[in-house]
Amino acid sequence: MTLLICAAISLLTLVYVFYLPGKLDLRPEKTRAAYLRERKDAVYENLRDLNFEYNAGKLTDSDYHSLKASLEDEAAMLLAEIERLDKARLENNPPPALRRAKA
C-alpha cells in the first residue's frame, strides 16, 4: 500500500513538474520595426567597439576603414527601412492631432 502511494505521489510530481500546456511563449510578437531597431542598436554598439579597438591599436587602418564602411552602410539601410515603416504606419493610422488638421 505504501509503495502504491509513493508511486502515485511520484507520478503526480513528475506530471506537475514536466507538464507543458499548449503555448508557453508569452512574449509579445516582435514586429519588423522592433527587430530593425534592435539590429540598429547592435550595429551602433559594434561601431563603438570598432572605434575602441582601432584606438587601442588592435586593427590596421585598412581593416578599420573597411569594417567601419560596412557597418555604416548597414546602419544607413536599417535607418531607411525604419523610416519607411514609420512613414507607412503614419499614413495608415495618423495621430489624432493630424486627423483633426486634415479634416
Give an overview of the whole structure:
This protein is mainly alpha-helical and 103 residues long. Helix content is 78%, strand content 0%. Helix 2 runs antiparallel to helix 3.
Secondary-structure class:
mainly alpha
- The coarse silhouette is flat
Helix content: over 70%
- Strand proportion, as a percent range, falls in under 5%
Summarize model confidence as the mean pLDDT: 88
- Give unreliable regions as ranges: none
Characterize the largest beta sheet: strand count, sense, and whether it forms a barrel.
none
Q: What order do the SSEs take from the amino end to the carboxyl end, as H and E?
A: HHHH
Provide a brief overview of the structure.
This protein has 103 residues and is mostly helical.
What are the defining features of this structure?
103 residues; mainly alpha; 0% strand
Q: How are the SSEs ordered, and which strands pair?
A:
Layout: H1 2-18, H2 32-55, H3 61-92, H4 96-102
